[in-house]
């Protein structure tokens, strides 16, 4: 399939224009063609999202019509497999195709989604369905149903009885059933995700089924009945069973019961802030078309339910949220008990754990409920409403004493007007004057739930103090974290125009402010805790509160943190202060969060400079984390005066100094209540501080260089901590470099060059590589211009004087001190080859000459390894597709005059998905030609030499081994650098030929799943292109050499070939596995994307994100398309030969090589709930994930090694390989035994 690439060959990196054009930012980038059916999407939400994602990619994607036809074909095959009862392997194959297809981001039409979900549901509830078929179907069913907007009970209904019938029979096993199947867990998983599709008319039938199961003499049976009730009962209409559940709760003393009950109530509280959900008339409006034969529909009388027959349904609202006063008091009692605070009479609150010891093991097979702390926080937040009379305002953050309970002295009138016979009219009609009116019960911010929370926090305040910490401290800190998280989530949800919460029930600004005042004091106490879990919870809490009310949080944090940073006496207090500042970073730098916070940034940065400290790695980690968090939101640089803009003058009273002066608030004055500066005055102050960025950046870089200089020698005292330290400092410096102004970048580049050109330190080779990489990522043109001639000259000089001339091949060999200058310059040069291959075209003659010299003259392990990595980095930079920059604003905005004159107004800018613009590197013809020239001039001669080395007659000695390893290392790294240069051409004949030897046995060829390639940014996709043919032929030649070399080394079998064998096996892995997303692993991109979301998230349900998130999202979509093309690889004769060789090496008589095959070459894949995120333990298992038929081909060799008379080492290798999951499960099936010809 031809790929429609934009013509970027006409672009120049140094076109006339603003100076910033040299920073690698291209304005004239043609957007790829978007198919018409995607481009014209306006109404369909999913199609609009697809259009925006298509716009972010640098190449054209397939039309929705074409990809939907592919999906329809997959659905056809699934239907045929189900009709034929071909669940394994038929259904499992095509089910995995649904998973791969969904990674592409195309929408599933509602009708197809509905029908496929119903099909999966019935497959999962078929009695006797094996677990290995049930698991993937249940997972895909959950994926289809997880979006409440795409499917709801109006669209589809599902029966509840099939799941219950299977679960009830499987939960309590008879004692003679020694095997415990996972069926119960899967049924619970299904019920959890399908309950919202159970018809609410089935509630009475469910109660009729579940309530009789409650057995007061058996806690296990009671807990099982409770699980059935709280898992199957529809949440939409709890009017008939909610009082029952509270009565049962009061009669059972069990922590396990409490946790599931609290989870249930938290879901009810969140759902029923919308009163229309529980409207009884909805029951009759929903079609009742999903009943099984054994399911009835009893209709019990509902006359005792309040408001059941009202013409206008007002929801489930009662005294406090959806709970009565009595129920609310009971919940708050459970809240205190859940914290496990050591109260004087705490024994009466904590006996539930003793009762739970009677529970039998079957209950452990049920899914665990949500943590009670999170559930309690959710209940409290979603019960908040302006439902009472507000109490007078207070300037204190928390009450000095614990107020008395509501109504403990005198009966009080109730503001809701209908409880206990007291009406609001009693209050309004009371006579005026002294002694003539009743004492009125008031609540904090007019909210009963908030008032209860404030009283509880006030009563527990002492338990937050670090000197009174214990097991309860982490629970208390987590509790306030979840409180503010849920409050923030609900607050922003209620700001949306489609919010269904009644206006009179919504959160108010006064409630938000009083909540922060109530919680901040205890948060400030707990932030000094030495428990990492507590500190992490408080960080999250402070971040949410700083977004809610930044003026109440920022000033007190600065008041506490600045003295700790200035004194630098107590290390723990210093790191706690840095963490707290990192938590409230949005309030400091994001102008839309807190406009007045930015003026504090530079003084804080200056106080943090001593935090870069080699002797205190933990403090350095905290400091770099803060710097990374801040640097992704701002531009470091002075402001260019705009002549058309009137600049507010900064008078002497507003000018800032480098010292941050924070004074305590006077008594009785609340932080944030004082009169602040105007917007113009804040901008004027910030303008003045921006002029000091140059001094800070220079001081920071000097501090980083000082840290690198004092690193321990590699292989000596240095270890994992030092590696992590260098990574964290380099990560922060990279983020800073990306956001430097042109003048500051030139200053930094000169400082780095001055250091790199006048120093050589063997202990900082890795560090200097990362340091140069940071500046190259920002401006590759200037970086190469500065470093490449210098490094090339030094490298050639060192090679001419004998550097790296001492032959070695061992991974454990120590580099010679005399080679330090060579390694130093190689590391620098590798760092420059990091971004935008077009910048390297100017130096292609120099680079090719240098590669030839390195190939010929580097004989030591460290020398030729670094040289090969340099070749790989260069090829990857030339031929790969990747984003060119990662600034916090779009490239056109960064280059605009308005931004340069007032970038401080844009700090913390967030983008929606349709606003972000991304500049990609797409290899042009000149870059591809340069890459092919490297293969012709460097790689081919190396391959020629290797082929000569394995010809008969060569003596296997140290010189031969060294030549073999270093030449092969060059060739291996060269092919590893072009995973997306050539798109493999898979014909229908190739697919049919491969299917003949598939691992899937007893299956018709048409029913074996296969993948059609899609556009994914491959540089050469036309098989008729001579460049495509050249690189394909050369790679096949490389594979043929690997087979020949493997035969030769196995024939030798000598101990002095171990290093060569290890290099050979690495090369086989490169040949077989380096394709598509091998460098942009889909699973790694998923992890990084979610990590980016977690770091930058300000509240749940956020839609606008920093631009870096959208860049990461685009990389994820690109990796998904590469992964699609990598799922199915074709085995040719060369691949089959290499599979046989790898199998033989797994049986070799040297344990070091067997371990090498097992561990060193293993590719670890991230673990997740998705069944495809598995960990490959051996190269063979690795190959099984990419090539079909590997197990079928390898098993005869492994079985033969187990025959009597074979060497013990071969038997051990065979048993170890068969012990792997992929081989072991396949081997025990036995279906392939008839095909095996064992001698």
Automatic annotation (TrEMBL):
Pfam families: HEAT_PSME4_mid. InterPro entries: ARM-type_fold, Blm10_mid, PSME4. One of its GO terms (molecular function) is proteasome binding. GO terms for biological process: proteasomal ubiquitin-independent protein catabolic process. Residues 453-981 form the Proteasome activator Blm10 middle HEAT repeats region domain. GO terms for cellular component: cytosol; nucleus. It comes from the Eukaryota. Residues 279-303 are annotated as: Disordered. PANTHER family: PROTEASOME ACTIVATOR COMPLEX SUBUNIT 4. This is Proteasome activator Blm10 middle HEAT repeats region domain-containing protein. It comes from Cerrena zonata. The lineage of its organism: Eukaryota, Fungi, Dikarya, Basidiomycota, Agaricomycotina.
